[in-house]
């Protein structure tokens, strides 16, 4: 499923990415001393675009859910979207990768975040093609995601999942 986002949404996502990077840049540079500010902004930008695409999809399917948060907050990952269904709350974690990436069918997470996943956690894996074009590749329960050590040695604190392992 590919989603076209409008210019207003794209602008809101870019503003958020710049503001959150200003607040959290030192935190992310501790995890990756080679991280350039521009890359941090871009990663935050495509992540927020993906959240908006997933949210749009859920709304189109008449799901009761929270909107993506545009408040600049601390670096806690308590999920991106909450979905309310039959008295249950599902926590949806949205991950996005560039479509032209060498490993475009894989996504990363901080390994320590895996310890906090439970029965109500799901993932939405997305691909970025352009600011107005995001694809939702797969939505899946967290227990069906196989996490592995990434191929690149410098990603020591991360775990990777590959689309081929989720088929």
What does this structure look like?
By secondary structure, the protein is an alpha+beta fold. The protein has one domain (2-101, 110-141). 29% of the residues lie in helices and 30% in strands. β3 and β4 (88-98) form a beta hairpin. It is globular and about 45 Å long. α1 (7-31) packs across α2.
Percentage of residues in helical conformation: 25-40%
How far apart lie the N and C ends? Answer: 17 Å
Q: How many separate domains make up the residues?
A: 1
What strand order characterises the main sheet? 1-7-6-4-3-2
Short description:
It contains 2 helices and 8 strands; from the N terminus they run βααβββββββ. It has 167 residues and is α+β, with helices and mostly antiparallel strands.
Task: Give the arrangement of secondary structure elements.
Elements: E1 2-4, H1 7-31, H2 37-60, E2 64-65, E3 81-85, E4 88-98, E5 106-110, E6 121-130, E7 133-141, E8 158-162
Helix pairs in contact: 1-2
């Amino acid at each position: 499923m590919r989603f076209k986002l409008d210019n207003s949404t794209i602008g809101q996502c870019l503003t958020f990415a710049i503001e959150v990077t200003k607040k959290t840049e030192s935190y992310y540079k501790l995890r990756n001393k080679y991280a350039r500010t521009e890359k941090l902004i871009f990663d935050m930008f495509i992540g927020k675009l993906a959240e908006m695409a997933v949210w749009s999809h859920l709304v189109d399917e008449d799901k009761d859910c929270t909107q993506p948060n545009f408040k600049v907050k601390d670096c806690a990952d308590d999920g991106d979207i909450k979905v309310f269904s039959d008295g249950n709350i599902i926590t949806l974690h949205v991950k996005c990768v560039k479509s032209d990436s060498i490993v475009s069918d894989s996504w990363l997470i901080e390994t320590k975040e895996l310890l906090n996943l439970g029965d109500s956690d799901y993932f939405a894996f997305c691909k970025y093609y352009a600011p107005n074009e995001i694809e939702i590749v797969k939505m899946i329960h967290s227990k069906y995601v196989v996490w592995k050590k990434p191929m690149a040695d410098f990603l020591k604190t991360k775990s990777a999942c590959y689309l081929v392992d989720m088929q």
